[in-house]
Amino acid sequence: MDEADRLLAKFAGGIAAPAQGIFKESVRLQALSMKLPKGGLYRYYNTFVSFKQELRALKENVLSAIQVLLSTAVSVESPGRDPVDVRGLDERRRSESIIDATDSLLESVNRRIRVIYCSNIARPQDVWRDDVDNSNRPFIPKQVRATLDYDTSFPPLGRARPTQAVADDGEYAHMYEHALKNLTYDEVMFRVRPRRKRCLSIDEVPLVWVRTVAELAELASQLNTVDEFGVDLEMHEYRSFQGFTCTIQISTWRSDYIVDTLLLRKSVGDYLGPVFANPRIVKVFHAASNDVQWLQRDFSIYVVNMFDTQVACLVLKKPYTGLDQLLRNYCGVVTDKRFQMADWRIRPLPKEMLDYARNDTRYLLYVYELLLGEALALEGGREKALAILNQSRDICLLKYKKEIFSEKSYLKLYSKYKITLEPRQLSAFASLYKWRDRMAREYDESLRYVLPNHMVFLIAKYLPKDPCQFKAICSYLPPLLKINLNETPTSQCTTAARRSRDPKTTPQPTATPQTPSSPVPPSQDPREAPPAVARSAATRPPRSKMAPPCATAKKKEFVRKKKRL
Questions:
Q1: pLDDT level of residue 555 (50, 70, 90 thresholds)
Q2: Domain containing 319: what range?
Q3: Is 204 within the bounds of a domain?
Q4: Which segments of 255-369 are extended strands (E)?
């Protein structure tokens, strides 16, 4: 446990350290925690006094680390406020506190990153806005070309007719489902190839930056002459509702290509679609489940005959499945993951980001040959190789599905955080969730950009009724919330709060005009009554339960209640 104590101390004291170091220490700490005894073995070890003492010390270190996290979050988001004492909370409240603190810190980091990287970047989707469908209807792909140029000696793929694009249930039918399910592989793929001495590095092959239609046509022509090529995608999703592909990286044995899909979005499918659907050419991906769906969504590109190196690792029962570990073990290459979450809308891309993108595909073909050779060398090698290809084919059969909103969609987020809300708070939560979805679709922004998850819970929990109270509970106001502050979230929260103050009063279904025999009492506030029925003094809530009349006093009381919670 000395190793665990040391890592915990380093983690607790390194909140302000670079994110990469914290991530590595977190992974190592998680691996160590998995080695702790469980079940009957734990009960046996717990009979020893020395084990109890070590475990007690470890628990204290964990609580100290959590306390440091909460203190840091409070100092960043609410300077001057005392942090919650984690030792006085039960296990559920501790988990909620960790989630809230982590969300606040990550949101703070996101704000600072956006100031550096995103402040001067124009939204590329504004150029091809007519190409984006954010409606609350199932996704329908753009029609691909009916005639494909490929070697007729292979089984025909079949033509996708417009009438076959949508199935009976409203979802589109996979245009190459029949071709994929009847796909056969050339015998050449099941022959053991001579092992290459090494793979050429990114410094030894040329890079072609594809930014024009002519260059895209030349790339398609070159790819039609090879037997296999490696593929990877980089996408952006923070400033878009569905996200969009920023670059496509393609590597052959002799060249690297990076396609600027922000410039060529409307042309990529026409030129590269037939190449990716050609069953004669093997497309090598790593962890392709997302990539094949993004290609469908943005370019109507469907992949036929794919080899997924992650699937190969699983079939061969490798102790690792990550691309960085494959490159380290097979190619002796250490990749830099600093740009994994970078903003790929940046133009021009700096050299470091270009090198990162190229490394993801440069060595894929070499790894593909080695993994396929390992599979064929095993007993029943042909079946192993066929299992890899068939499971990769199943990934190609995946269909992109757009997020569809329903009146119960909010329950997914609500159940995920395990935070209990009262009925009126839950009603406000559902309204906020619906408003956020509508704004995201209308402005083509991500849900996180419109209103982060933790803010949805905060607003639903405290039910602010004016801009001052919104600012009191939120460390900052997202741009779309600030612009639309007087719309759905505020009005829904105000309505919920007013109804909670007077549960006995409900609006009548029809209007009843006032008669001289039933005047409105002078002490009654007509704004608090339903539009058709006057409220008597007996049904009016007591003064102590009503909101303070002064806006400043309301804000002070609201902040005071929040601190007590």
A1: low
A2: 198-396
A3: yes
A4: 256-260, 282-285, 306-308
